[in-house]
Design brief:
Elements: H1 8-24, H2 31-80, E1 84-88, E2 94-97, H3 99-105, H4 109-112, H5 123-137, E3 143-149, E4 157-168, E5 171-180, H6 182-196, H7 206-223, E6 226-235, H8 238-244, H9 246-263, E7 269-274, E8 277-285, H10 288-303, E9 306-308, E10 311-313, E11 316-324, H11 331-347, E12 352-355, H12 358-379, E13 383-392, E14 397-409, E15 413-415, H13 421-425, H14 429-450, E16 457-460, H15 463-466, H16 471-481, E17 490-495, H17 496-501, H18 503-515, E18 519-525, H19 532-537, E19 542-545, H20 547-552, H21 557-572, E20 576-579, H22 585-594, E21 598-599, H23 613-619, H24 624-627
Parallel strand pairs: 11-12, 14-16, 16-17, 17-18, 18-19, 19-20, 20-21
Antiparallel strand pairs: 1-2, 1-5, 3-4, 4-5, 6-8, 6-11, 7-8, 9-10, 13-14, 13-21, 14-15
Length: about 625
């Protein structure tokens, strides 16, 4: 049976057959025969046990072969895996490594045994690796880190390491898995470069510029030096794109970037914001002179000819400059300040630099804040119209009132127009305020009419409001909202200088408004050019003599001559005339003698709230010196 191949099933069958034969034989009475049968039984059992033993040996042999084959497969998988596997001792010595690991370190496997793994780590990341190894050996669960390999002159490889500790008879060891992530790191670097650098010029973009500006501000505070922030725009660059195309324009921009970098120091920053706009950060400056020298270098470098289609093209540049901490602003505000200064340089003709004017900016900021506060006041109902009576001095009658704006400021009290209207008139808020004045005056007229008081009201119209394309339509709408207020009871006062600037357009507009029944007056007449052609072409009904002449006419011959001249023009051109600024009875008497019966001023009445007008009218009487003339 030895040498034959049996399986366990055959052995079991053989044993069963032998046992059955023994049972089938009758037990003899003869002792010899009985002993013979017992011997046979023992022989059979021995044969069965021998078969079982051979089968067991055969099974062990087959298991050993399978185990050996499995180990060979696992060894192949271990060696040819794309991941590098290492077994490190407690002091970081390599005890085992697969082929992938050897390839990562650039050595034969036999040359790596008993060498320190840290010797292959770059000095920049060696401390990271040592800390990682200490943590693994201290018994921490699987942890990770990234390190850089330095392999001669070749580009460094980036490894992603995973390690886990293991207790062995030889002591604590580290199992290490290493993956090459160099391509991933390169991709990340490319993505980061695209995020922080301009794709055309490879200069820092706005994102990186903001970060560097914040760092430069912090460094300036530590060094007690100055930081120059310079905003640059090329003069006439658009013509290059329009004439030769964007491809050649891009070449010029790249060359501009090179020239700018050559003008500054290594630690300074040249960034491109987009288009032909660049920003320079010049740190560690001792004073203004050093910055001015750098600006001169930049302007000179960019003024040298550029070559496009073998033709020399000259460009110039406009720069705006501010110094930190003299201009102690945040990064966004510093850039805005230099942008403003750059436009100042450009408006001055370009090819120059201009310093940011901090005083001007403070005034501009205050102006914006004032406008915002006035807008808030208008919305909150804080604006008021006060009314100053206009009278016929000779006959002692009331001929109307002029609406004058006031601001009932919640903390500063009642503010006169001179305290806030100059800011309004330089902005589009003048249109909003003007529309409010128009509607409020018509509303008040309707209230007085309901009380039986018919008072014409004159209002001042700003140049910005008057020149709106929809001015006539807005006036028509306002009149429709208050139908009880007669259109001829509304008088629009415009400045002489405003009308003269846009004579043809204003003349047409006046005619359109007169078609609605509204009257016009020329305010402050005599302070402008007072051209006869001007009077001839403007269909205004009233000329208002400026108060500066009225107040001085008693002591100033020239002022009196102007008053007489305006009165004479009003007669010649069939216009009504009214004098402003009557302060005394003598002022009124002289005006009446010169032919001007209508007047207003503090000598007659101060502007007052509308509720006081009826009582004032009921109690006012003209001085006898006026009515006796």
């Amino acid at each position: 049976m030895i040498g034959n191949k049996f399986n366990l099933v055959d052995a079991v069958k053989l044993r069963g057959q032998a046992e059955q034969q023994l049972q089938n034989q009758a037990t003899p009475a003869d002792p010899v025969t009985a002993r013979t049968m017992e011997t046979r039984q023992l022989v059979h059992e021995l044969q069965i046990y021998q078969v079982e033993l051979e089968l067991q040996n055969q099974t062990l042999l087959e298991t050993s072969v399978e185990l050996e084959q499995s180990l060979e497969r696992y060894a192949d998988l271990y060696d040819f895996a794309p991941t590098g596997y290492f077994l490190l001792t407690a002091n970081g010595t390599i005890r085992e490594v697969n082929l992938a690991g050897a390839d990562l370190l650039g050595k034969e496997r036999s040359c790596l045994m008993d060498r320190q793994f840290s010797l292959f780590i770059s000095t920049e990341t060696r401390s990271v690796f040592n800390a990682f190894l200490d943590t693994v050996l201290a018994g921490a669960s699987k942890i990770r880190c990234e390190v850089t390999l330095t392999l001669g002159a070749a580009p460094p490889l980036h490894l992603y390491l995973e390690g886990v500790g293991k207790d062995t008879a030889a002591g604590r060891q580290c199992r290490l898995a290493a993956t090459n992530v160099t391509e991933r790191k390169r991709a990340e670097d490319r993505i980061q470069h695209l995020a922080y650098y301009d794709a055309l010029t490879q200069l820092p973009n706005r994102v990186l510029l903001t970060d560097r500006l914040q760092q430069a501000i912090a460094q300036t505070g530590r060094d007690q030096k100055r930081l120059a922030v310079c905003y640059l725009d090329l003069d006439g660059f658009k013509a290059i794109n329009d004439t030769w195309g964007h491809a050649y324009g891009d070449r010029v921009l790249v060359e501009v970037g090179h020239r700018l970098k050559s003008c500054v120091r290594t630690n300074d920053t040249v960034a491109r914001l987009g288009g032909d706009e660049f920003v320079l950060l010049l740190g560690n400056l001792a004073g203004i002179e050093e910055c001015e020298q750098a600006m001169d270098r930049v302007i000179s470098a960019l003024h040298l000819p550029f070559t496009v289609f073998d033709q020399p093209i000259r460009l110039s540049s406009s720069l705006g400059v501010t110094l930190y901490p003299d201009d102690d602003s945040d990064p966004d505000t510093l850039l805005r300040h230099t942008d403003q200064a750059m436009y100042t340089a450009k408006q001055a003709g370009g090819n120059r630099y201009c310093w940011f004017d901090a005083d001007y900016d403070r005034r501009a900021r205050h102006h914006r804040e004032t406008l915002q506060r006035i807008q808030t006041g208008l919305t909150a109902g804080e604006l008021r119209l006060y009314y100053q009576p206009k009278v016929d001095m000779r006959h002692g009658t009331i001929i109307g009132v002029e609406a004058l704006i006031r601001w009932q400021h919640p903390s500063e009290g009642l503010l006169l127009p001179a305290q806030f209207m100059p800011a309004v008139e330089t902005s589009n808020l003048a249109i909003v305020v003007g529309r409010w004045v128009m509607k409020e005056a018509l509303r008040q007229m309707s209230v007085w009419i309901a009380l039986g008081l018919h008072l014409p009201v004159s209002i001042n119209i700003s140049s910005r409001h008057l020149q709106q394309p929809d001015f006539v339509a807005q006036l028509r709408t306002a009149l429709a909202v208050y139908p009880d207020a007669p259109p001829d009871g509304l008088e629009l006062e415009i400045l002489e200088t405003v009308a003269l600037d846009e004579l043809a357009a204003i003349s047409t507009l006046i005619e359109d408004c007169r078609q609605l029944g509204v009257r016009f007056a020329l305010d402050d007449f005599g302070t402008g050019y007072s051209s006869l052609t001007y009077l001839k072409n403007l269909a205004v009904q009233v000329l208002k003599i400026d108060q500066s002449f009225v107040r001085d006419m008693l002591v100033d011959i020239e002022a009196r001559a102007i008053v007489e001249g305006v009165i004479g023009l009003s007669v010649a051109f069939h216009r009504q005339v009214i004098a402003e600024g009557v302060e005394t009875d003598a002022d009124g008497s002289l005006l009446i003698q010169l032919g001007c019966d209508h007047a207003q001023g503090y000598g007659i009445a101060h502007p007052m709230p509308p509720a006081q007008i009826p009582a004032w009218i009921a109690g006012w009487t003209a001085p006898q010196v006026w009515t006796d003339q």
